[in-house]
Amino acid sequence: MLTLQVLRNDRDALAQALAKRGIDAAPMLDRILSLDEERRHTQKEVDDLKAQQNAASREIGELFKSGKKDEAEQRRADMGALKEKIHALDEQQKALIEQQESALLELPNRPHDSVPAGQSDADNEVVSEEGARPELGDAAVPHWELADRYKLIDFEAGVKITGAGFPVYRGKGAKLQRALIQFFLDRADQAGYEEFIPPHLVNPDSARGTGQLPDKEGQMYHCADDDLYLIPTAEVPLTNLFRGNLLSAEELPVQLCGYTPCFRREAGSYGKDVRGLNRLHQFDKVEIVRFEKPENSYAALEGMVEHVRGLLRDLELPFRTLRLCGGDLGFTAALTFDLEVWSGAQGRWLEVSSVSNFETFQANRLHCRYRNSEGKPQLVHTLNGSALALPRIVAALLENHQTPEGIRIPAALQPYTGFTTIS
RNA sequence: GGAGAGAUGGCAGAGUGGUCGAUUGCGGCGGUCUUGAAAACCGCUGUACCGCAAGGUACCGGGGGUUCGAAUCCCUCUCUCUCCGCCA
């Protein structure tokens, strides 16, 4: 949620920045501003009346104490009208604040200056591309066939037990999952991220804190009996660890990581997008999260992207880095870099990581602040990134490293898998 | 699931109708002392909103109520803790 202050100070620039998302925010901004003006007016009025009331109450107390009972009773009788007026204005005030809050909640984050305008993923900017794509020729086999051939994943069993999008990993397929998780966590640890194992269900306050509610309600699985949501990403519980906290400057930066399964309903997806491991309802992911001082957050974002690149290099996968355009940028993000790996057999790019700076957008909802150099509480910047999401990594590993003899495991991963090939 | 206790400032913990935004301790900041540090001593130290300012208003888990006046009384919700039961 944007702060009212930004909106007040910077209405025009904000509207311009939001236009990069392809939305005309001006009417909404003006509505909020006029609500704000009305609220301030009402507050002035009600505050003055309350001041009157407080003064009168003090005087009545004095009168009672000094034994002037008659005068006190008289004053007391006169208070009724004032009380009613205050009550009515309080109600009005509350309604205004509510309207303003809900309007503010619907406003997406302000895109960073470097975000290109654009409608869809077609307008994303390719920042860099690395690694040679394999020469597989006509012999290229898609990962779902390889997974079946080497008995790594049983998609049908998942359908029977749960439904489509819930694969069952088996044998070396299961070991590969475990190896990747361990590899990613070790690398995050080496980079200074403290490991956490958070709950996999969160309450509505947490979902609101990171911005999943109200924006993405339909994307999450909801346990209605207990009003809890299955996490769509570890970002939600990890970031909410610091909800409501006031940090000292020395505590920053905070660097966290964690492995969790992730659950997404993915309503409306179909076709080649959901084939094999391309899009699942449950998948595994290691997430990295940072809380930063505002002046450091963009350097931190660079560092996180570089961390993810390091993982992809070690897995010997061809990949590219995208700067998301306004139209593709998530609701809560100010700047996002996506990392995509080349899927050798499918002949297309698969998103495996999304690294974002949310600036104060989440922190404002989370009420997560730190004491700045002047000793004043100030909103922190929050960032997070996948490092990494497993399914598409597995897809790319299978497809790009396939040989007539089997699947070649990259050297960096071999200490974790305990085997060098899958055959 | 049954019974009881509790929720107060960065943290700990007092406060049971009228200068209580709140005693005190710790922490933090500033100072005295010291070659320097520690200790000791002295002072300062909540947040948000309105206002150019002076100042005003709100906040003692959330919501509602009683009262001229509520951290304090009543109702309600949520959460936490203890004991019992069940259980990986």
List strands and helices in order, with pairings.
Blueprint: H1 4-9, H2 11-19, H3 26-65, H4 69-77, H5 80-105, E1 125-130, H6 143-149, E2 153-154, H7 155-161, E3 168-169, H8 171-190, E4 194-196, E5 201-202, H9 204-209, E6 222-223, E7 228-230, H10 235-240, E8 246-247, E9 254-263, E10 282-292, H11 297-314, E11 319-323, E12 335-343, E13 348-359, H12 361-366, E14 369-371, E15 377-379, E16 381-389, H13 390-400, E17 402-403, E18 406-408, H14 414-417, E19 421-422
Helix pairs in contact: 3-4, 3-5, 6-13
The protein binds one RNA strand of 88 nucleotides through residues 39-40, 43-44, 46-48, 50-51, 53-54, 56-62, 64-65, 72-73, 75-80, 82-83, 245-246, 248, 371, 375, 377.
